[in-house]
Design brief:
alpha/beta, eight-stranded mixed beta sheet, 14 helices, 374 residues, two-stranded antiparallel ribbon, 38% helix, Rossmann fold
């Protein structure tokens, strides 16, 4: 085969791949009403995207900040209804903002800065502060509620235990373990991802999009760690892989790898112990997990609930042993078939019970009170 022929075949394959991926993006595009995109600017120059949903009638003073986990974007918490916790909050009368962390979704770095040049400390010290500044200025509220899934919950814990914690009215951490007692094979998988990410990022976004049509038809190795395949509708699973998955930066993965192997939750230089600070938190705390969550198992979730110093803390673990229709894994708490009816209402109710009603909304009934921890 001559060089010209090989080059021609390569170009043809590249064009075919591009057409295939464009077709997938169109096929699995989200069709519901999308939120309004706003921007918060960090001290180090990032433009952080915040996706706002405004209720028809605002019923509460405090806004809600929704924070996604690793390798996802804001759609983690604001997908197509009924799989949108943001919509559930807006329907209850809350102004909601779903954030894209730096390196994900629409958020943009400053000129000359790499998209994946950051770690967890940057999310805590830069993105979180900028997002809170924006929300409180926009809503003219003194405090806000933080709802975070996985890494988004961990960042929330780090914020709650620090000086910025005074601006939180309450925090809900969904599947966000501060103890890392993962099986060795899971820790080794994370290390492999870290190696594959060197020196910039593990770019699985296009791979995820390309595999989307096969999700729900084929079982992907280790997929049960991230969610219970039997709990998520195949159509939803395919749309998730086409729209939600993001690439992971090397610096962030390296820090998470350190936390996992050494069972610690601390700053990059080790001088700030985020886990130890949780014993002094005073804000209301909701700790939420699933019975079959491989990343945040019930034992780890219960241990961190015990660690929290808050006098107002609630533990909820969702699964068949506790009365739900199915056992919930890591992602199922947001995308499981029963999540909109079994999980979302209890999160919204917990927040509403602790929120400040606006005077004109004082006569409106709040959501049914959530049950106490199980």
């Amino acid at each position: 085969m001559g060089l010209a022929t090989a080059l021609g075949i390569g170009v043809a394959l590249a064009v075919a791949a591009g057409v295939y991926l464009r077709l997938l993006r169109y096929t699995y595009r989200l069709r519901g009403d999308r939120p309004t995109k706003r921007w918060a600017h960090t001290r180090d120059g990032w433009a952080i995207a915040l996706h706002q949903r405004t209720p028809k009638v605002r019923a509460f003073v405090e806004p809600v900040l929704l924070c996604h986990g690793l390798a996802t974007n804001h759609l983690n918490l604001d997908f197509e209804p009924p799989y949108s916790l943001a919509c559930a909050f807006a329907e209850a009368g809350f102004t909601t903002f779903s954030l894209d962390w730096r390196g994900a979704g629409a958020s943009r770095p400053p000129p000359g800065r790499g998209r994946f040049d950051f770690d967890a400390d940057d999310l805590i010290e830069q993105d979180a502060q900028a997002a809170m500044d924006f929300l409180l200025q926009e809503s003219r509220a003194p405090k806000l509620f933080w709802v975070g899934h996985s890494l988004g919950g961990l960042v929330g814990y780090a914020v709650a235990g620090g000086p910025e914690g005074r601006r939180l009215k309450g925090l809900c951490a969904i599947g966000a373990p501060v103890y890392f007692h993962s099986p060795r094979w899971l820790a080794r998988t994370l290390r492999l991802c870290t190696w594959l990410a060197w020196p910039v990022a593990f770019r699985q976004r296009l791979l995820s999009l390309g595999c989307a049509p096969f999700m729900g038809r084929l079982t992907v190795p280790f997929s049960d760690v991230l969610l219970n395949p039997q709990a998520v509708a195949p159509k939803v699973l395919r749309a998730i892989h086409a729209n939600l998955i993001e690439s992971m930066g090397y610096r962030l993965l390296r820090q998470l790898d350190d936390w996992t192997w050494h069972d610690r939750f601390c700053s990059r230089d080790g001088t700030t112990d985020y886990r130890a600070r949780l014993a002094q938190v005073e804000q209301p705390m909701l700790v939420l997990g699933g019975t079959v969550d491989g990343l945040a198992p019930p034992t780890a979730i219960a241990a961190q609930a015990d660690l929290l110093g808050s006098p107002d803390k609630t533990l909820m673990v969702f699964g068949r042993p506790n009365g739900e229709r199915l056992d919930y894994g890591h992602g199922d708490l947001l995308f499981g078939r029963g999540a909109p009816k079994e999980v979302y209402p209890r999160i919204v109710a917990w927040v509403a019970e602790r929120a400040t009603p606006l005077p004109q909304a004082g006569g409106q009934p709040l959501p049914e009170a959530s049950r106490a921890g199980r």
